[in-house]
Amino acid sequence: MKIQYGTILATSAISTACAFQSPGLNAKRSFALQSFMDEAQDARAQTAMSSGFKDSLDRQGMVGSQDLAKKAWQISPMVRIEGKTRKTFQFHDISKEVVQVVIESDGRPIHSDIELWIGPDWTPMKMSVYSEDGRVRPVQTLVGTRNMMNNIEVRNTADYQFPMRAGAAQATPALTQLRSTILAEGPSRYIEGGGAVKSFDFPPNVDQIQVCLSTDTRQLDARVELLNGPNNYKQVCSIFTNNGLKNSLFIVFNTPGSGNVVRVRNMAPLEFPCKASVAPVE
Fold this sequence. Notes:
- By secondary structure, the protein is α+β, with helices and mostly antiparallel strands.
- 26% of the residues lie in helices and 37% in strands.
- It contains 2 helices and 16 strands.
- It has an 8-stranded antiparallel sheet with strand order 1-8-3-6-14-11-16-9, covered by helices on one side. An 8-stranded antiparallel sheet has the order 2-7-4-5-13-12-15-10, with no helix packed on it.
- A hairpin with a 4-residue loop joins β12 and β13 (233-241).
- The longest helix is centred in the N-terminal third of the chain and has 59 residues, at 2-60.
- It is globular, with a radius of gyration of 32 Å.
- It starts with a helix and ends with a strand.
């Protein structure tokens, strides 16, 4: 009986010891396994984040080519314009009716005025443009010259800390034809005068948006805004002309990323509606 009782006590002690050791060992094994899984998950997350960040930079034009303008909008040479100064471009060929203007910077904001001069004291068209980032979103617009000898003035209205580069040239045949086609048969919507507003939103895969505003020869007084978020202005263009057909507004916005909205506001009186054609660049 003593031997059996001792055997039972020894067996019980071993079982008790095993009962106390097993949870600890299992916990260590579980903790080590969980740590390994967490590290693997963190590595996957970091890889995905890096990939997503690179894709985001690609969409913003900060990886690879940083020139978001199409070849048709490339003008050479570009002239540096300091703050509070201006540059004029002369065009004497009356057989060509459209001039293309490009304004860019090294990533700093752009505040500029663009004017069409015909004769010594006639300015039939004036534009005021703003861009938050002149590298990612340069100003790209077409100006009608009414088949007359003219000067295009580009004025840098920003302070001297914000220089910019500008270029003007006779528009390429492709751009001239595009503007003519949109004015003649492009899909458009009427926007009443008196401050009426119309907004157009676009999916993230749209890289450029073309905007054309015109009237039936009456005055055009309008404002076009490129927004990314609630009232977050990325680019703004205001135009006034006494003839919205001969000097219709044609401007191209670069739209990297998502959440881009174009908002058009007719600033003219109620009697002067305008026609807006807003579409992605094909």
